[in-house]
UniProtKB/TrEMBL annotation, chain A:
One of its GO terms (cellular component) is membrane. PROSITE patterns: FIDO (PS51459). It is a single-pass membrane protein. The lineage of its organism: Bacteria, Candidatus Daviesiibacteriota. ATP binds at D138, G139, N140, G141, R142, V143, A144, R145. This is Fido domain-containing protein. Pfam families: Fic. It is found in: Membrane. It comes from Candidatus Daviesbacteria bacterium GW2011_GWA2_38_24.
Automatic annotation (TrEMBL), chain B:
It comes from the Bacteria. This is Uncharacterized protein.
Length: 289, 94
């Protein structure tokens, strides 16, 4: 039972120290990493199962003990002018969402080369958390980005065979003027946004996940580019002659080529619409299978 | 009676062990094939650095979300300092 004072919306929470914010996300990341590291190769995902979102959130927002891991308790939030899931139903909806995610991840585990599939699951999960459920008062974006990162990372070779957890899409937010965005929205103009936020906005408008998929693919390509750039610098200096090293780098190059191909196909409109899936239809028969 | 019980227990246990340890062979062969040849030490060091960089990036991302006015480069540098400085408690590598 939460005390009344914690639930009182009029409480003014002091801004957290900058270090605490960084520390919170790092704690959540290490929690996810440890859980993923502990699972056996052939077993179902231990990380992606009910309780995931609150588990991440209570680490991300550890500096506000009253809010950490607690669902929101009002329905005042709107995303792109649309109402979200009612706070009274959040418990059930989040549970079904996590079941959906678990099923998807177990399927993805069987097909490690399916990059497009991983991108689709990551975007759907990201939008499900931020755009449909929005389960927490604060920190939804951080939770969603961590989940998307780990969805994409699950099938990478460096994690599966060598146990290196390199987060694929560190979507760095640029400076955002929220007042300016709100003013433009109120006067029916389209706001000027960064690619990542613009993609989220477009998904909310058209209910089509392709822009976000493209944004994630592009930022993954950028992060692989940075990785390969660093590697090439080192390669000239030292030389990596080990065949396993070369194989890993070849796999990463192939992944980059595939991602570029996906991003281009989306830009040219070669893919059909990727509608936001219905997360809440998981039946118990499917769960047993 | 005791014999029946004992044989039943043995049968159940052996079935349990069989289920537990018999895995699809191809899958394991593939994984072992990858694992038998380790990465070179240089490569592992390089990947560890990349891990740290990606950690610092996601921490910087969270800083920018809460404090949008901070310079992204400064947020990244601070995060990297926190990870790599062992005197700062609570951020040790897991």
């Amino acid at each position: 039972m939460i005390s009344e004072t914690v639930l009182d919306r009029n409480i003014h929470y002091p801004p957290p120290p900058m270090r605490q914010v960084a520390l919170g996300v790092d704690r959540a990341r290490s929690y996810m990493e440890r859980t993923m590291r502990a699972e056996r190769i052939d077993e179902d995902s231990r990380l992606f199962k009910p309780g995931l979102l609150t588990g991440i959130h209570e680490r991300v927002l550890f500096y506000y003990p009253g809010l950490a891991g607690q669902y929101r308790i009002n329905d005042e939030v709107q995303v792109v002018g649309r109402n979200l899931v009612k706070h009274r139903d959040l418990n059930q909806y989040v549970y079904l969402f996590e079941r959906w995610l678990q099923n998807q991840m177990n399927q993805l585990k069987q097909e490690p080369d399916n990059i497009r599939g991983a991108l689709q699951v990551a975007t759907a999960a990201h939008f499900g958390i931020t755009g449909e459920l929005h389960p927490f008062d604060d920190g939804n974006g951080r939770v969603a980005r961590l989940v998307a990162n780990f969805v994409l990372m699950q099938n990478t070779d460096e994690r599966r065979f060598h146990k290196f957890f390199i987060l694929p899409v560190p979507t760095l937010r640029e400076r955002v003027d929220e007042l300016e965005i709100r003013r433009r929205l109120e006067s029916n103009e389209s706001p000027k946004l960064q690619p990542y936020l613009r993609a989220l906005y477009e998904v909310g408008e058209k209910w089509d996940l392709l822009p976000l998929e493209q944004a994630l693919a592009t930022s993954w390509v950028q992060s692989i580019d940075r990785f390969l750039g660093d590697f090439n610098l080192r390669h000239d200096k030292d030389g990596f002659n080990n065949p396993t090293d070369q194989k890993l780098i070849a796999v990463i190059r192939r992944r980059k080529a595939r991602l570029v191909q996906i991003a281009e196909s989306i830009a040219e409109g070669n893919y059909p619409e990727h509608k936001v899936p219905n997360f809440y239809t998981t039946k118990f028969q499917e769960l047993a299978a | 009676m005791t014999l029946v019980l004992a044989s039943d227990i043995i049968l159940t246990y052996s079935l349990y062990m069989a289920e537990r340890f018999v895995r699809p062979v191809d899958f394991y062969n593939q994984v072992q094939h990858e694992q038998q040849k380790p990465l070179s030490r240089r490569m592992r060091r390089f990947l560890r650095e990349q891990e740290l960089i990606s950690r610092a990036l996601i921490m910087a991302d969270s800083i920018l979300e809460v404090f949008p006015d901070v310079d992204p480069q400064e947020a990244f540098n601070q995060s990297l300092d926190q990870i790599t400085d062992p005197s700062k408690k609570g951020l040790k590598r897991q």
